[in-house]
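>> Question from a student workshop board

For tomorrow's exercise we were told to take the sequence and the ligand below, predict the bound structure, and bring the output to class. My setup keeps failing. Could a helper post the expected result so I can at least see what it should look like? The ligand is copper (II) ion.
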Amino acid sequence: MFARKGEDGASLRGGPSTPRTPLRLTDAVYVFVLIALGGFIAHAAAETAAPPVHIVTSGSDLKWGPPPPMIPKCAEAAILDGDPFKQGAPFTVRLKLPDGCKFGPHWHPTDENVTVISGTLGAGMGDTFDPAKGQLIDAGGFVRMPTGMHHFAWAKGATIVQVHGVGPLEFSYVNPADDPRNQH
Ligand SMILES: [Cu+2]
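>> Workshop helper replied:
Here is what the output should look like for this input. Compare the format with yours to find the bug.
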């Protein structure tokens, strides 16, 4: 009545005395479990590779450094988020400008969004640097320069601005002499 050890072994190997259907069901269950497990692992790996972006930075934690080469050397820069030089990628940077630090007439390949954090930024349109044709924007103010629009800017007093947009952040200067890359 009771199966001996040898018969159990034959049953596990799927010998001729064993009905085939239960084995197939077992196989199906294993396959299902493997697929489910594989999916779970792949999902977990994907989450590890690209975690949700969550950034909290105190103003005192910003790391200021020299500006990128296309930005006037009088400025200091800090990257808050993203890669300003990556095509199609959003970015947010801050620029710290001493009094009188100026940007000659220039334009950008993408829209430029500028928020004045502190101090006063002067900005105007056109191909000639002329503060009389610009306007002053105080802390909290915002400027949006559409792609390709020629404009100029300067700091009135020590000023910090935040620039955000979609990369690449690039400056094309109307007068080559205004391009810091040409100033040695
Ligand atoms: Cu600009």
